[in-house]
Specification:
The protein is mainly α. It is built from four helices and three strands.
Length: about 120
């Protein structure tokens, strides 16, 4: 991906790794909070550069998500990006409904952070 990007993440590893090269919006919240913030930016005219459900890790299997959006705003709403984020939010909501938040050990959280980071790093390369 040669485009400049804005990174939206709740993953501290992604934040620390990308903050010098990209504008990074760090969300102190859940995966759904990352989706909501991404949707808000899409409504402002930004477009998705990475798929919100990239990788084989489902939203109910990891607490972390990193998404890249365009650095430049359009003068209009990108309906394809809006549909992708809305559909991703709907899928995540279905998978997360009535699920108790898991208390993962820090070593497992480190693994989830690394998986999410690797996915976005490869997408941006």
């Amino acid at each position: 991906m040669s485009k400049k990007a804005i990174i939206i993440t709740n993953n501290a590893l992604s934040y620390e790794s990308f903050k010098e090269k990209y504008k990074v919006i760090f969300i102190e919240g859940t995966l759904m909070d990352v989706f909501i913030t991404t949707r808000d930016y899409i409504h402002m005219g930004y477009t998705l550069l990475t798929h919100p459900l990239s990788g084989s890790v489902k939203p109910n299997e990891t607490p972390y998500k990193t998404i890249a959006i365009s650095h430049e705003k359009l003068n209009e709403l990108d309906f394809n990006s809006l549909m992708l984020i809305e559909n991703s939010m709907e899928t995540a909501a279905k998978l997360l409904v009535n699920k108790q938040k898991k208390q993962w050990p820090e070593s497992v959280l480190d693994d989830f952070r690394l998986i999410d980071f690797d996915l976005i790093k490869n997408a941006l390369a």
